[in-house]
């Protein structure tokens, strides 16, 4: 296994796969570089002299500007490299030929639940959704009691579980802020993995059940029950009884379907310097495979596209989609600027400790989760996927908020890459992929797949193994987060609080 990787022949830095100590010799083809300082794994080392003010290049693109002269072999990080991002930009659409991802070689299949509207679920569950934080605990109690009764009464696995997804919002919100909360909850209520949904309200909240139901198509409402707790006698008993009604209606059996029926969300969180070298490009290969099969892939975390957005814009299927990407990226930058915050505040302290220095570097690694798929759709926050191919979805980088948005958009499984690790889970099966083998070894209770294996075995066999794991999970195998009971949602709060 190499000690360091040079990603692109035009790069001026390489990334360490293992720690380097002062005096170590690193080899890149015919070039040898001597480390000038102890440098951790995942961090960068200069392979060419870089003058102050010059761009530093990784992935074949600038990742920032040198703030000091950098000698060959020097550690390149926050002490001598800074972002070059600043404000919104103008972009111009240039029609071109978008490469088609390679076809799915094995016509992979999974065992899914085919719904009446043609969508395919990876789980058949009953979801309990509170309209407002005041009844969050009530929703949790209803779900727990109903799930316990289900486990006791059913052994056929036709219903995979009853789960409540709580949040603190739904009241003291105005305008677009309230609309966003309502849209996310309505979209979750329409998710194919929810065979039935109980909506639990208080009664006096801003997020009224009647308005929420208006965002749920009429064809879906027979599988939705509602409970206004202020009007109920014993709200717990009534809620459990309503869930029992849904269980009787929602029973289903799995059947064999192809990857064309999968809606795959892709996400990274707690990234390190190896995420863009191992886990993210590995997921990109799965994204290409799903799109080539005729399925859908959803990419979000718009701030983690800053500095790499042109790579996605160049893959827009037409000018309308291109304009949608431009608007989404620039609007998100204005969101930061309007709050007097820089657009480049990312990466997080954990990212920096793991070797990521600038947002450009993080973004260039993050967008690799989409592979080379063409962008066919752009969705606003709370939007729902209605096209095959690659969809870009408006949401921030925050793990819980963005993964909730992916689920609400219709993702029936999420591939989540991480270099630092996280226990979080979300409404749909979330497969955690470690960027390095050390994390996979240390945290087997969190991690489902080790992408660090690509450093030893290459991408092709590891991608095949990941595809097999994904199909098993889509067919009902539990993820680590599901085994741990880690299932949460988080809603993007953008407005004032009354």
UniProtKB/TrEMBL annotation:
The keyword Lyase applies. Coiled coil: none annotated. Keywords: Hydrolase, Lyase. Pfam families: GD_AH_C, GD_AH_second, SAF. GO terms for molecular function: hydrolase activity. It comes from the Bacteria. Residues 11-82 form the SAF domain. PANTHER family: ALTRONATE DEHYDRATASE, ALTRONATE/GALACTARATE DEHYDRATASE. Belongs to the UxaA family. This is Altronate hydrolase.
């Amino acid at each position: 296994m190499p000690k360091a990787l040079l990603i692109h022949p035009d790069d001026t830095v390489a990334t360490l796969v293992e720690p380097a100590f002062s005096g170590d010799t690193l080899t890149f083809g015919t070039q040898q570089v001597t480390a000038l300082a102890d440098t951790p794994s995942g961090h960068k080392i200069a392979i060419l002299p870089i003058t102050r003010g010059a761009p530093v290049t990784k992935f074949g693109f600038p990742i920032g500007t040198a703030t000091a002269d950098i000698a060959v072999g020097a550690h390149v990080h926050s002490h001598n490299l800074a972002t070059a991002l600043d404000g919104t930009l103008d972009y111009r659409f240039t029609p071109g030929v978008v490469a088609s991802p390679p076809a799915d070689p094995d016509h992979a299949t999974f065992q899914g639940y085919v719904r009446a509207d043609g969508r395919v679920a990876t789980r058949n569950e009953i979801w309990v959704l509170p309209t407002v934080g005041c009844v969050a605990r009530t929703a949790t109690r209803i779900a727990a009691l109903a799930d316990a009764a289900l486990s006791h009464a059913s052994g056929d696995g036709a219903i995979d579980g009853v789960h409540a997804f709580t949040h603190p919002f739904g009241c003291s919100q105005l305008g677009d802020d309230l609309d966003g909360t309502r849209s996310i909850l309505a979209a979750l209520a329409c998710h194919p993995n929810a065979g039935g949904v109980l909506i639990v309200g208080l009664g006096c909240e801003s997020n009224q059940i009647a308005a929420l139901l208006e965002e749920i198509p009429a064809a879906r409402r027979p599988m939705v029950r509602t409970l206004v707790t202020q009007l109920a006698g014993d709200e717990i008993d009534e809620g459990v009884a309503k869930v029992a009604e849904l269980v009787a209606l929602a029973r289903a059996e799995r059947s064999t379907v192809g990857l064309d029926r999968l809606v795959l969300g892709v996400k990274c969180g707690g990234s390190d310097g190896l995420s863009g070298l191992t886990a993210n490009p590995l997921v990109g290969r799965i994204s290409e495979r799903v799109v080539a099969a005729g399925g859908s892939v959803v990419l979000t975390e718009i701030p983690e596209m800053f500095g790499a957005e042109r790579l996605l814009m160049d893959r827009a299927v037409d000018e309308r989609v291109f304009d949608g990407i431009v608007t989404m990226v620039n609007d998100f930058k204005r969101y930061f600027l309007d709050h007097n915050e820089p657009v480049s505040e990312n990466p997080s302290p954990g990212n920096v400790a793991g070797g990521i220095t600038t947002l450009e570097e993080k973004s260039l690694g993050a967008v690799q989760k989409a592979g080379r798929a063409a962008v066919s759709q752009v969705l606003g926050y709370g939007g729902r996927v209605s096209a095959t191919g690659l969809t870009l979805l408006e949401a921030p980088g925050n793990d819980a908020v963005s993964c909730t948005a992916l689920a609400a958009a219709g993702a029936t499984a999420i591939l989540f890459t991480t270099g630092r690790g996280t226990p979080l889970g979300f409404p749909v099966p979330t497969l955690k992929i470690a960027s390095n083998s050390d994390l996979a070894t240390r945290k087997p209770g969190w991690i489902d797949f080790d992408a660090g294996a690509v450093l030893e075995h290459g991408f092709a066999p590891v991608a095949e193994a990941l595809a097999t794991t994904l199909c098993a999970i889509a067919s009902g195998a539990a993820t680590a987060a599901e085994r741990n009971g880690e299932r949460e949602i988080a809603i993007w709060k953008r407005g004032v609080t009354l």
